[in-house]
Amino acid sequence: MFAATKPQVALRARARKSDVRARSGGRKAMVTRAAGYDYDLLIIGAGVGGHGAAMHAVSRGLKTAIMEGDVIGGTCVNRGCVPSKALLAASGRVREMRNAEHLKALGITVQPGAVTYDRQGIADHAENLAATIRGNLERSLTGLGVDIITGAAKIEDNHTVSYGAPGTVTGGKVTAKNIIIATGSTPFVPPGIEVDHKTVFTSDAGLKLDWVPEWVAIIGSGYIGLEFSDVYTALGSDVTFIEAMPNIMPGFDKEIAKMAERVLISPRNIDYVTNVLATKVTPGIPGKKPVTIELTDFKTKEVVDTMEVDAVLVATGRSPYTQGLNTEAIGVELQRGFIPVNAKMQVLDKDGKVVEGMWCIGDANGKMMLAHAASAQGISAIENMCGNENELNHLSVPAACFTHPEVSFVGLTEEQAREKGEKEGFEVAVRKTAFKGNSKALAEKEGDGMAKLIYNPKTGEILGMWIFGLHAADLIHEASNAISMGSKLDDLKFTVHAHPTLSEVVESLLRGSDGH
């Protein structure tokens, strides 16, 4: 498709390999330069997963290039994790400073109406943060000698990728001994929903914060929907969740979801409908014409209601971005758009056999659609590529929802653990503790929260941990690391945590005590 030319690399010449190895430290590289190829490794996609894989590849002495058809950083940095945290940080401050009752309990008085916000200023904060992180990632790649190739990728065979601007015939070809596909995902929009990117939009447009609608319907009440509800209600919007499942926050531990509803939903200008699908959504005109939503019963598939709102955010999950890669050239049959892989992240063909030299990480393989999971998978793939057996335990990968307060978890829900125990013949036990028993939480007047530990009482194996409360996202990693390292409760119950800190919430669970 593309004429073969020398790869167009970005910014600066590669650093001398000897310098890179000297800086990287750790074990020596297990792989030498592959003869007959342009690179030891080519990574398709420069998101968080691709970046993590590239950095680790350099530390293992691999001559590495990364190919990107859009901008460095992918979804997470440009249209996801990073800018959303900026919006949540700013809107969270607004919520905090407008909570007169909470401030009064701390001895602080703020005059009514004294706290205002600049919508464009908040939007600029998110955009500027994304630009900063994007620049940091690019500099880290070029600083270690990773070649950045700009262009959309098309796989020619398991060692060759052509590239160029989409729809053109200009570009080039690159060869590599190993190729990692790390193309990520895009927002999924169900059939019947017409997106105009102004009144009906996905998280991509929502993060631009072009306006703050008076009434927003959010289709889907997973972590993306919850975070946006946190932002919008803090800035003055009313929110209605439209959820197809019987309960909001499906996939959450039921007990945690119940408490989160009491704190994050009930006291705020949020309502919800469940067991319904938004089967038809027609855009409106801001300030002139409402968005119309046709609601259909999930079971009967009959239209049951129609809503009119100012805007609709579609938060119904994500789809793998794998179209156009030409995976059929390597005998791969996509599964609902995902690229099948084994536990080592090696790509599998339509017969389930390993495609030599081909790997896939992150959202494109569908194993766990989280940015840090993609990065961890990338590191695992590099280790296997270098002859070091490695299989990522996905049950050790934590996740978080950055609402105020936060939700975090690792491993199984209580319901999943009990189902697993019943099938495999072991007992499941649960420990719980409340934030209202933690001194630091009480000092902050943030006693709403709980944590629960799910474990095997006979072996001491941690099956899961869920936390809802102040800085929950920062507290989950002790359990994550314990699961990753195979630590048992007896190994952890005598660990010491500084007092008074929120980390004592986790300490209480590990020791089986009631808190501090």
Automatic annotation (TrEMBL):
Domain FAD/NAD(P)-binding span(s) in chain numbering: 39-378
GO biological process, one term: 2-oxoglutarate metabolic process
Known cofactor(s): FAD
Entry's Gene Ontology cellular component terms: mitochondrion; oxoglutarate dehydrogenase complex
UniProt key word Translocase: no
The Pyridine nucleotide-disulphide oxidoreductase dimerisation domain, residue ranges: 397-507
Binding site for FAD: K85, T183, G184, S185, D363, M369, L370, A371, H372
SUPFAM superfamilies, A to Z: FAD/NAD(P)-binding domain, FAD/NAD-linked reductases, dimerisation (C-terminal) domain
GO molecular function: dihydrolipoyl dehydrogenase (NADH) activity; flavin adenine dinucleotide binding
Note on cofactor: Binds 1 FAD per subunit.
SS bonds (residue pairs): C76-C81
Keywords, comma-separated and alphabetical: Disulfide bond, FAD, Flavoprotein, NAD, Nucleotide-binding, Oxidoreductase, Redox-active center
Active site as annotated: H499 (proton acceptor)
Pfam families assigned to the protein according to its UniProt record, in alphabetical order: Pyr_redox_2, Pyr_redox_dim
Residues annotated for NAD(+) binding in this entry: G220, S221, G222, Y223, I224, G225, L226, E227, E243, G317
InterPro entries membership: Class-I_Pyr_Nuc-Dis_Oxidored, FAD/NAD-bd_sf, FAD/NAD-binding_dom, FAD/NAD-linked_Rdtase_dimer_sf, Pyr_nuc-diS_OxRdtase, Pyr_nucl-diS_OxRdtase_dimer, Pyr_OxRdtase_I_AS
Family note: Belongs to the class-I pyridine nucleotide-disulfide oxidoreductase family.
Name assigned to this protein: Putative lipoamide dehydrogenase
Biological source species: Ostreococcus tauri (Marine green alga)
Phylogenetic lineage: Eukaryota, Viridiplantae, Chlorophyta, Mamiellophyceae, Mamiellales
